[in-house]
Protein 1
Amino acid sequence: MVTIKEFPKEEYLLKGHAACAGCGPSIALRLLFKALGNKVIMVVPACCTTVIQGPYPYTSFAVPLQNMLFEATGATCSGIAAALKIRGLEDITVVGWAGDGGTVDIGLQALSGAAERETNFIYICYDNEAYGNTGLQRSGATPYGAWTTTTPTGKKERKKDMPLIMAAHKIPYVATACPSYPVDFVNKLRKAKEIKGTKYIHVLAPCPTGWRYDTSKTVEIGRLAVHTGIWALYEIEYGRFRLNPPSDRLIDKSKRKPVREYLAMQDRFRHLTEADIEKIQQWVDMDWEYYRKLASSECSDLTLHGKI
Ligand SMILES: Cc1ncc(C[n+]2csc(CCOP(=O)(O)OP(=O)(O)O)c2C)c(N)n1
Ligand code: SF4
Ligand SMILES: [Mg+2]
């Protein structure tokens, strides 16, 4: 376990990058490099990160990076991983880094194929819960009730549960994270780097521009997502489900803050009715009943993986 004081001083996301002020995904990017250093090859489809990285010939990334079509991140990572294997360059980590639109919607097929082929790479979905780069349209990861430019009265459908979809691929490592918990995220990345095969990490990354809150509140919003239980920090290692701190202390509903506190901080939820808020609270409580079962001793190894 690395502590925050032991994070390396080197920065591979350079100054002058083009993210909005308070951008959660850019904090996650910085942490990614703190965890993995520069022996990485990044594959990045169209998303806010293609803006953050800067216009050619300038770049804010001090690591090799391949931009790729929206739908092809997983396939590209498979190709690069195969080439590195043939050349015996096994100490380089291939990282697919894509937004929620590029993961839960458009890139899902290629990602699923890469996982089924047991491609040796880490795939990270940074989830700002909308298509940020093109002006904030709804995605499959946008939560119920949220305003986006294509859901002006609030999205009517629920968020797709992508981490559990990836767990169903029986890959060796699935985890959730949030940049408000940097030590948790960095240690998960370091663990993922040591495991062979496909590793998937889904990062809830608050976006002040899309979620409509003050740019100084990004870390606070991420913490509230976790403390209300809207976002649970967990990992599934070879099928074994484990809640991570502080989520492991939140199974008891009385320990969780009401979801209202999280929703009230963001103008994208401003129009919600009392009935909407109650519905969201009930869904969160149901999710936690499921997490409780997954984390219980009789159920923690769900034969999701069935490692022999
Ligand atoms: C096949 C295809 N469809 C649409 C686009 C246009 N496009 C570029 S970036 C983007 C939004 C990406 O959203 P997401 O993956 O959530 O990343 P974010 O911008 O939020 O970081 C879209 C729709 C595209 N480049 N390719
Ligand atoms: S729109 Fe959101 S995710 Fe995209 S750069 Fe701005 S703050 Fe970051
Ligand atoms: Mg997005």
Protein 2
Amino acid sequence: MPKVINSVTGPISTQALGQTLTHEHVVSANWNMRMCYEEWFNREEFLAYAAEDLRRTREVGVTTLVDVTPVCLGRDTGIVREAALRSGMQIICATGFFFTENQWMYNRSVDSFLHYLMHDIEQGLDGTGVLPGLIKMCTDRLGVTPINERLLMASAMAAARSGLPVATHATHLNDGAQRQMDILEQHGVPLSRVVIGHCGDSNDLDYLEAILRRGAYVGLDRFGDEAKNSLENRVNTLMALCERGWLDKILISHDYVSFVDLGAFEWRFQREKDPDDAVYNSRYIHRYALPLLREKGFPEESITRLLVGNPRAYFEA
Ligand SMILES: [Zn+2]
């Protein structure tokens, strides 16, 4: 059944999603550093770059991009909306908190975290009035710490109250994904509305099927991040899952970001960059993964299922 969902430029029907990348980011620029040092980030220069980057991704056939940037990772919904308007890309944003622990999180109750999530859901993100289309929850190498558990509980409660789908950030190096699903189920969120993120970094079919058997989607969402898993492995694992009957429960994406202040970068180098300087960008699936899948005999209708049918079903669940 078609459903109306929130994009940064207003409500859209799930019928209009088209080819959708379900785990991406436009910008991740630390707010503390931006506030303290003007040279850290240039909004106008970045916008021109991001709009061009997104325009090129539209050119390969992608019509919708889901930006799952959480609070504490430099979410800037005003920039995302402007980049969507300039590029014509439909973009859906998220509410939720990252797994990193900040001073203000200590001794904070589940209800307090929930208050801020519901603020986003009811009043919009970052003062823009843009409503989120999904909820992000994050667990990583720290595992489910006491703070993380409260964040996961608040996110699960927000998902139960709002009916929004959930996208997670998880690592296959610990039991975070299973713990996330436990907490979601305990709060009455059907796992058919949930995608466990970063599953594609693993080629362990037991790990992946343990998630799929509970009814959640697996996010094979880092295509192009060769350091974490090679293209050959990612494609082989995807095909092995499809052979076992899981085609309808797989979401593919890149986890790419047009600008991230990770490590020792300097803004002046950003200025000289072209969006295609690196092969890893939000066109990688179309340029490298799909040709390899076709070469290996993966059916065209299954590619359409991955890019169009599954994202739509996830938002309609
Ligand atoms: Zn991500």
